[in-house]
Fold this sequence. Notes:
Layout: H1 42-63, H2 66-90, H3 99-126, H4 128-145, H5 150-166, H6 175-201, H7 206-229, H8 234-258, H9 264-271, H10 274-286, H11 292-322
Helix pairs in contact: 1-8, 1-10, 2-3, 2-7, 2-8, 3-4, 3-6, 3-7, 4-5, 4-6, 4-10, 4-11, 5-11, 9-11, 10-11
Amino acid sequence: xxxxxxxxxxxxxxxxxxxxxxxxxxxxxxxxxxxxxxxxxxxxxxxxxxxxxxxxxxxxxxxxxxxxxxxxxxxxxxxxxxxxxxxxxxxxxxxxxxxxxxxxxxxxxxxxxxxxxxxxxxxxxxxxxxxxxxxxxxxxxxxxxxxxxxxxxxxxxxxxxxxxxxxxxxxxxxxxxxxxxxxxxxxxxxxxxxxxxxxxxxxxxxxxxxxxxxxxxxxxxxxxxxxxxxxxxxxxxxxxxxxxxxxxxxxxxxxxxxxxxxxxxxxxxxxxxxxxxxxxxxxxxxxxxxxxxxxxxxxxxxxxxxxxxxxxxxxxxxxxxxxxxxxxxxxxxxxxxxx
Length: 339
């Protein structure tokens, strides 16, 4: 969405029909400075923290159903919940979609399912903290690939060092699980790029809702086969539904509201804490302890993203101080994956 044009400043001098004496000359207008960014309120921070914790607690809850349903069954239920929520919010008018609009929607539907299936399979094999950290490399790679500054090159090297530590050879290293985590990262990167394309072709959240519906329909036969071979207990089915609600419905709705009150840079900066939240939830909720090397690697990836976002925000602020202020375009929706 193009940035809104700046509104011309209104005249501060008032006019009257008759003036007895010449009005004093108005003081010269001060040099244009950038409009102050919206401050991140305590409520905004609490909402972002709640959204991140909800996402990770949902993933941890879904993992409790793995022994019966497996990652495939849990993802199938999550896709159903995501489709219901996104269609209720986005209300897509499917009959009005053209072929030009349908192809990225269909691709995004495939990416939705692939992204969550890879993430949950990685969680099953290598744990929540490492899986989320590897998946987080997707958006981080896109952000760094578009940068041309030395600080971003340093951030890329720092993130790469973290990945090398996470994937270092170990006696019990599960490289298949790490591979699923990296495939999830590639899917998240594709999710971001496809969402940008859809955002220019379909208004509102209709495109994301249609993609979630496509993904849910694709998982209907998969879910049916899974339920037929692995009869779920009420508790197991409840875990899978809770994963869909906590990891799809709650983050999407909370992020949608938060982005209206919190600067996009602050939102992106807070999102970088998700690997830390995942490691915390995995440790406290699932007993998945991390060694010092893995914790340091997660910290390196988080630091690389945080430094990149902060330096980019400062660069934009400096550039805006030289030119006339232009209101930034607000993000159309949540930044993180919601499918």
